[in-house]
């Protein structure tokens, strides 16, 4: 039990880098913080062996890193969250839900309730049962199946729509400003537009695109938001990605990849923040002794890779799909099953 207090700063930084990246990529941070140290073996594996314990400093360390990721998400979507929070309170004061910001605020509230309740009741029992290398490998494989299955279903619905067959739910297409406006920088500079002026125009276009996206998400509907939110419960299993299952749910309910990612990040922010905040008392108490410095180092690393992940994925899913992540999860999961199930 006491071996965990000897976690090195190097280990803390490496795990922080892994957590920050895999928390936002649809490949499961919890699964990777179980599997990768287990693959390393030695003192790394000792960390994982204590994660399922109620008195695990490693678990407190891992969940504490969530705060860094949540801060990055809040910062990246600061303007959006400002509108959402304003919409939430104005809807309470006016007793009406009319604007897109008000609708989106309440959709996020409705979607967060299932996973919030399940997390409080099941988070620790699930950690005890499933935060083990073989279990994480199995669920990582299942995560790959979920991601791949969502892509197959979406392609079938699009094909059915193209053939004139009514789709189960129409795909919510972008409205207003078109996506190419985001990448118009080269042309403006080539034409001699003043860089500062261009940046202002680009920021204005991005703000319009963000509001356009929120307008589409506000039309998602309570039923779809509830189903997508409830899918986060699967992320209590080490190896199932919160971002992955919510994106998959969004695709199945008719969202584009870009809008599914946006809704997933907005939906995940309060959940990730709450998970980290709940463990904050552990880090300030006896469990935090010997790892507080490592938590700071790991959090800085996690913030760096989280920022990279949110910027990269926001661009990636404008034109690409979940398929590469599905293939990765299937391959990594099956190889890990062989490693930890046989050897």
How would you characterize this protein structure?
This protein is mostly helical. The protein has 15 helices and no strands. The chain has one domain.
| Helical content (DSSP H or I, runs of 4+) | over 70%
The helix tally amounts to 15
Distance between the termini: 25 Å
Q: Beta-sheet strand percentage?
A: under 5%
Quick description:
The chain has 15 helices and no strands. It has 343 residues and is an all-alpha fold.
Primary descriptors:
single chain; 343 residues; mainly alpha; 15 helices; disordered N terminus
In terms of topology, how is this protein built?
Blueprint: H1 9-24, H2 29-40, H3 43-49, H4 57-76, H5 78-94, H6 100-130, H7 133-162, H8 185-190, H9 195-218, H10 222-231, H11 242-252, H12 257-278, H13 280-284, H14 292-316, H15 323-342
Helix pairs in contact: 1-2, 1-4, 1-14, 2-3, 2-7, 4-12, 4-14, 5-6, 6-9, 6-10, 6-12, 7-11, 7-15, 10-11, 11-12
């Amino acid at each position: 039990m006491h071996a965990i207090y000897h976690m090195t700063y190097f280990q803390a930084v490496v795990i922080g880098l892994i957590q920050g990246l895999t928390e936002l990529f649809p490949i499961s941070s919890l699964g990777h913080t179980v599997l990768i140290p287990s693959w390393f073996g030695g003192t790394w594996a000792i960390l994982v062996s204590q994660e399922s314990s109620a008195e695990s400093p490693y678990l407190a360390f891992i969940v504490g890193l969530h705060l860094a990721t949540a801060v990055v998400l809040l910062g990246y979507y600061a303007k959006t969250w400002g509108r959402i929070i304003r919409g939430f309170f104005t809807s309470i004061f006016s007793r009406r839900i009319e604007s897109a910001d008000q609708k989106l605020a309440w959709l996020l509230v409705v979607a967060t309730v299932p996973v919030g309740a399940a997390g409080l009741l099941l988070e620790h029992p699930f950690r005890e049962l499933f935060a083990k290398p073989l279990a994480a490998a199995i669920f990582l494989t299942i995560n790959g199946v979920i991601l791949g299955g969502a892509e197959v279903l979406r392609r079938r619905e699009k094909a059915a729509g193209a053939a004139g067959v009514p789709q189960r739910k129409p795909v919510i297409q972008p409205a207003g400003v078109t996506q190419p406006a985001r990448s118009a920088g080269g042309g403006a500079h080539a034409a001699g537009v003043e860089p500062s002026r261009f940046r202002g125009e680009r920021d204005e276009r991005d703000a319009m695109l963000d509001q356009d996206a929120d307008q589409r998400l506000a039309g998602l509907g309570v039923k779809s938001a509830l189903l997508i939110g409830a899918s986060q419960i699967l992320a209590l299993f080490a190896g199932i990605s919160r971002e992955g299952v919510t994106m998959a749910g969004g695709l199945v309910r008719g969202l584009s990849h870009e809008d599914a990612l946006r809704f997933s990040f907005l939906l995940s922010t309060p959940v990730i923040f709450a998970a980290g905040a709940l463990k904050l008392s552990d880090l300030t108490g006896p469990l935090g002794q010997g790892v507080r410095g490592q938590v700071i180092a790991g959090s800085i690393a996690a913030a760096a890779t989280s920022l990279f992940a949110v910027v990269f994925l926001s661009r990636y899913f404008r034109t690409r799909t979940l398929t590469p992540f599905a293939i990765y999860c299937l391959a990594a999961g099956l190889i890990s099953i062989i490693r930890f199930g046989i050897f």
